[in-house]
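Exercise 7. Given the encoded structure of a 173-residue chain, write a plausible sequence.
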């Protein structure tokens, strides 16, 4: 260590260090750096339940999400055979469900119109917060109009008392 003047009476401390590596040190460093490989052998498919979601990107109606619960039985396939038989079409990737389809699905899962309304209100609130944080001007009149439409939509559905028919599964048929 040595002190060097740094103008106006202050000193800067410098430390000079030298580390001498032996040939064996370098060899041991490189020997530890083995190439790492990751391999997959099987694909395990698990079925999850669906529930009311909280995704504010849903355009209208209550969002649907995967629940934490899943069926204990799984399906396992060798990776190569699974990939060989997977010829995805565009329809298989289409996961957008209409608002009415999501409402029907959630009612069939046992949710009430009141729960669907609450999820729709929460989604709409989150969308309004996003708009406001992005600098978009959202007036109180706009907000009142949006929530009035939501209340009206669900009050009409509740008054009609129409509940969708339970979906039948292949096990029930």
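Solution.
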């Amino acid at each position: 260590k040595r002190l060097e003047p740094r103008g106006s009476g202050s000193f800067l401390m410098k430390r000079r260090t030298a580390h001498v590596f032996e040939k064996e040190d370098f060899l041991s460093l490189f020997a530890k750096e083995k190439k790492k490989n990751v391999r997959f052998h099987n694909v395990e498919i698990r079925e999850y339940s669906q529930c009311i979601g909280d995704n504010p990107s849903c355009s209208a109606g209550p969002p649907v999400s995967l629940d934490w619960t899943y069926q204990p039985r799984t399906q396992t396939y060798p990776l190569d055979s699974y990939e060989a038989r997977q010829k995805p079409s565009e329809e298989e990737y289409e996961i957008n469900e209409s608002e009415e389809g999501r409402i029907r699905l959630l009612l069939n899962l046992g949710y009430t119109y009141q729960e669907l309304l609450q999820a729709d209100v929460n989604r709409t609130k989150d969308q309004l917060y996003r708009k406001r944080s992005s600098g978009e001007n959202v007036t109180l009149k706009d907000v009142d109009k949006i929530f009035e439409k939501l209340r009206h939509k669900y009050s009409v559905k509740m008054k009609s008392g129409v509940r969708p028919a339970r979906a039948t599964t292949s096990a029930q048929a």
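Remark. Confidence is low (pLDDT under 50) at residues 1-5, 8-14, 167-173. Students should compare their own answers with the one above.
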